[in-house]
Amino acid sequence: MIITDGCPGLHRALETVYPYIAKQRCWTHKLRNVSNKLRVKDREECIAGARLIYLAQHRKEAVKNYKDWRWKWYTLYPRAVNCLEKDLDGLLSFFDAALSHSVKVRTTNVIERSFREVRRRVRPMSCFTNSQSVDRIVYGVISHLNQSWKDKPLIEFTQ
Questions:
Q1: Are 26 and 88 in the same domain?
Q2: Is 154 among the domain residues?
Q3: Confidence (pTM)
């Protein structure tokens, strides 16, 4: 499964290189896009309702939650609802993953957190003497993140 933020160029490339791999759209990015189509006074309530979609226990419940959310918000914000609706199948792909992975793959935040940490560590360094020195610092940061996350699930599952 590949998790993306919805970049059209990336999606075209993935269709070429990995045409049979499941693709998951990032909920964080999608909800930001939906939020941009809402009045400030309605954002919190509308986004809270949309979160119930991905917090469902299974796909059938998620679809029901989507329909309830759509019914409530479509008349006020058709563009916001359509923004989510057009990618609903891709947003619900994580339900096809094993339960132990499903929460971890519904967003690209873990990947982006790694990138932010690499940038945070590299920016103060004024220059690198060669490409190997860049490789070493990037490897060191990613290796440290892997070690610190190895035994920490992103969320505890209860059944």
A1: yes
A2: no
A3: 0.68
